[in-house]
Amino acid sequence: MDGSAIIEEKYRMLFDQQMKKVDKQMQLMKDTIQAMAMEFQAVKSQMADLQQMRSQILEKAKQPDTQKALPSDAKPATHPRQGNYKPADVDIQKMFYFGHK
After folding, report:
1. What is the pTM of this model?
2. Cβ-proximal residues to 78 (8 Å cutoff; 6+ apart), any chain
3. Total domains, the chain
4. Whether the predicted pLDDT of 91 surpasses 60
5. CA distances from 13 to 5, 10, 51, 78 (A)
6. Tens digits of per-residue pLDDT, 2-44?
7. 8 A C-beta contact, residue 84 and residue 78
8. Are the C-beta atoms of 73 and 79 separated by less than 8 Å?
9. Rounded distance, CA 48 to CA 25, Å?
10. Is residue 6 part of a domain?
11. How far, in whole angstroms, is CA 83 from its chain's centroid?
């Protein structure tokens, strides 16, 4: 009986060592999973912030710009080569004169 008690004690020690090893591995896995979950939450919050910023930028782009509206109210400068002529400015007879010079 003495030999079987020693063998039983040996198995119990091996079993305890293996259980401690498994417990350490499980705790390591839990810590890793928890760290990954926290990192995932951080990425989700960054994505939400970026989505919010994107929507704000799109709203600003859709709104008419007041600086662009000001020049349109002002009268554009006339330039002689742009053709801002009226029919009264040039006599048609002068354009198509077929007589003697």
Report:
1. 0.49
2. 84
3. 1
4. yes
5. 12, 5, 57, 101
6. 788 999 999 999 999 999 999 999 999 999 999 999 999 999 9
7. yes
8. no
9. 34
10. yes
11. 47
In three state form, how does the secondary structure of the chain look?
CHHHHHHHHHHHHHHHHHHHHHHHHHHHHHHHHHHHHHHHHHHHHHHHHHHHHHHHHHHHHHCCCHHHHHHHHCCCCCCHHHCCCCCCCCCHHHHCCCCCC
Length of the chain: 101
* Cβ contacts of 84 within 8 Å, gap of 6 or more: 78
d(CA 47, CA 53): 10
Burial of 67 (0-12, 13-18, 19+ CB in 10 A): exposed
What are 53-62's pLDDT values in tens digits?
Answer: 999 998 888 8
For residue 38, the enclosing domain spans 1-51
Is residue 20 in some structural domain?
yes
CA distance readout (Å), 67 to 42, 57, 71, 73, 82: 39, 17, 7, 11, 25
In angstroms, the CA 47 to CA 42 distance is 9
